[in-house]
TrEMBL record:
Coiled coil: none annotated. Belongs to the ABC transporter superfamily. The keyword Nucleotide-binding applies. Residues 3-232 form the ABC transporter domain. This is NitT/TauT family transport system ATP-binding protein. Keywords: ATP-binding, Nucleotide-binding, Transport. GO terms for molecular function: ATP binding; ATP hydrolysis activity. The keyword Kinase does not apply. Pfam families: ABC_tran. It comes from the Bacteria.
Length: 266
């Protein structure tokens, strides 16, 4: 399924957060969204998923959802958002409630999602008994169980240590290779974006506008190969320079505003 963002702008009261966002997320691609802190990345993801109505513009989907899709636009959150009093299987099954599925199908879907995320032996465990990495596996299994058309990932790995993050990135990619689910992935981590994404959209400082959309033109399987290191470093440097420019301008604007406030203070 394709996700189209057309002329989207958003303000929280007086605070303009997004401006003139046009973006087409292609079927089966992973699009990473990066930008300075406060540039509106999570707001844009919320608008894409229909959690938030934009002040201007619209979001549309095009194309069919996969067979058995119960919830076309499905989130994976940074803080896992698990219910502590429910088992792993109970947390995954939560996403199926209110869909009126027969018990046997519900069980089959839950078992399948747990197996795909390597959680089959942990179905009866509770979140408190699990590491952060395992909890996020449950978060991803809960998203997969509804067979989403588009996955919306809001910094899904940022609460995890570096090693667990690398491991989960590879596991997520293994699942994605089988399903090719369209995904939008918000992150602060350039290495993560460069590992996962087909394209990376860079937002400017607030109000966030699309500064550039960069295609990661190295096949995923080759991104850690020595022969590709130079190109990957080049892409990383380019992204870093864009973010640094935006952060510098934002800092200068803030300093100028403070100076004006001091001059005009009574
Ligand atoms: N519900 C809200 N009400 C008012 N202001 C909000 C609300 N949500 C976010 N903001 C503000 O809007 C701006 C953009 O927030 P948003 O979380 O979308 O940015 P972000 O790029 O995801 O930030 P970060 O990288 O720090 O996570 C920030 O200045 C934030 O404080």
């Amino acid at each position: 399924m394709e996700l189209l963002v057309e002329g989207v702008g958003h303000a929280y009261g007086e605070l303009a957060v997004l401006d003139g966002i046009d973006l087409a997320v292609r079927p089966g691609e992973i699009l990473s969204l990066i930008g300075p802190s406060g540039s509106g990345k999570s707001t844009l993801l919320g608008i894409m998923g229909g959690l938030l109505r934009p002040s201007r513009g619209r979001v549309a989907t095009r194309g069919a959802a996969p067979d058995g899709c119960l919830n076309p636009l499905t989130y994976v959150f940074q803080d896992f958002a698990l219910l502590p009093w429910r088992s792993v299987a109970g947390n995954v099954a939560l996403a199926l409630e209110h869909h009126g599925l027969p018990a046997a199908e519900r069980r089959a879907r839950v078992d399948d999602a747990l197996r795909r995320m390597g959680l089959a032996d942990f179905a009866a465990a509770f979140p408190a008994q699990l590491s952060g990495g395992m909890r996020q596996r449950v978060g991803i299994a809960r998203a997969l169980v509804v067979r989403p058309a588009v996955l919306l990932l809001d910094e899904p790995l940022s609460a995890l240590d570096a090693q667990t993050r690398d491991l989960l990135t590879e596991e997520f990619l293994a699942v994605w290779r089988r399903e090719r689910t369209t995904a939008v992935h918000v992150t602060h981590n350039l290495a993560e974006a460069l590992r996962l994404a087909d394209r990376i959209a860079v937002l400017s400082r607030r109000p966030g506008r699309i500064r550039e959309i960069l295609a990661v033109d190295v096949p995923r399987d080759e991104r850690s190969e020595p022969a590709r290191a130079a190109r990957m470093a080049e892409l990383n440097q380019h992204l870093w320079a864009l973010l640094r420019d935006e952060a510098r301008i934002a800092d200068r604007e803030l300093a100028d505003r403070e100076a004006v406030r001091e001059r005009t203070a009574p």
